UniProtKB/TrEMBL annotation:
<dbReference type="InterPro" id="IPR029039">
    <property type="entry name" value="Flavoprotein-like_sf"/>
</dbReference>
<protein>
    <submittedName>
        <fullName>Class Ib ribonucleoside-diphosphate reductase assembly flavoprotein NrdI</fullName>
    </submittedName>
</protein>
<dbReference type="InterPro" id="IPR004465">
    <property type="entry name" value="RNR_NrdI"/>
</dbReference>
<dbReference type="Pfam" id="PF07972">
    <property type="entry name" value="Flavodoxin_NdrI"/>
</dbReference>
Amino acid sequence: MIIYASRTGNVRYIVQKLGLPAKDIADVDKIDAPYLLFTYTDGLGSVPPIVDQFMTANYNQCKGIIVSGNRNFGHAFFGRAGDLLATKYGIPLIEKLELRGTLSNYETIKNYYYSIWKEV
Ligand SMILES: Cc1cc2nc3c(=O)[nH]c(=O)nc-3n(C[C@H](O)[C@H](O)[C@H](O)COP(=O)(O)O)c2cc1C
């Protein structure tokens, strides 16, 4: 399962392309099964509040983080939401991609997804 946050549609677009089981973070309060988190990056490289709140309640089942950002915001801030969450909770950052990313990004995500769900 991928739990995703998307404000302007890029992350939602990618999730649809991946074709993996997914739920909008706005529709989930508590999840008791392993999942990957896919978030966008907010201003000054911050974690979107809805994601922050969700992770406080659900970080323990999160097996990996995927982040979308935009390099125009500068190297230090690019996709930083993913770095912040990975560091805070000690969860692997699987992929950092720009806007809607590339097919190569999608392959990396899918490979990780399948490797995790073979184990659990
Ligand atoms: C107000 C605003 C602030 C943003 N700040 C950053 C930022 O600091 N770093 C970054 O990498 N991307 C930043 N972005 C870019 C988004 O993270 C990026 O466009 C992402 O693909 C959006 O995903 P979504 O369309 O699913 O919401 C910002 C976008 C907006 C609209």
